[in-house]
Specification:
By secondary structure, the chain is an all-alpha fold. It has one domain. The protein contains four helices and no strands. The termini are far apart.
Length: 63
């Protein structure tokens, strides 16, 4: 079993996620992983993906 670096996780939660300590300690591990962008989380959209969506779903113009 691996050990968690709780001080480092708390620092990330408070500094980067801007959580209050009370909010951090109420999170489940799954919620924390999701907030930190862990495995299975959605990646931010890049320009290539935006262009794909624009091509697939163009704005309709009247006329």
């Amino acid at each position: 079993m691996r050990k968690f670096d709780w001080p480092a996780l708390l620092k990330v939660g408070v500094v980067h996620l801007r959580l209050k300590p009370k909010e951090f300690w109420r999170l489940t591990p799954a919620e924390l992983v999701l907030m930190l962008g862990g495995p299975g989380s959605v990646k931010p959209m890049d320009r290539t993906r935006l262009d794909e969506l624009i091509s697939a779903w163009p704005d309709k113009t009247e006329g």
